[in-house]
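Propose amino acids for all 71 sites.
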């Protein structure tokens, strides 16, 4: 995935790394927004702008990528 590259120009540049270290955990949009110091609404908008995905879709994509690597 090129998520790190997409995020490099965003204020969500730490998000892919933060999520990657927590893929086994149950995470909500609230958890993600708080980790990025944003409101849920602002986080949701910025995530869609930066990655072209909703926060939950981004998390799902990262989990699928991890599963592929483990196979």
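Proposal:
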């Amino acid at each position: 995935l090129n998520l790190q590259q997409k995020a490099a120009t965003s204020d969500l540049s730490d998000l892919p790394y933060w999520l990657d270290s927590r893929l086994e955990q149950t995470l909500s949009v609230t958890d993600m927004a708080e980790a990025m110091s944003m409101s849920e609404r602002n986080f949701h908008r910025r995530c869609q702008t930066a990655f072209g995905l909703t926060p939950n879709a981004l998390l799902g994509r990262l989990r699928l990528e991890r599963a592929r690597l483990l196979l």
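The chain is about 65% helix and 0% strand. The chain has a mean pLDDT of 90.
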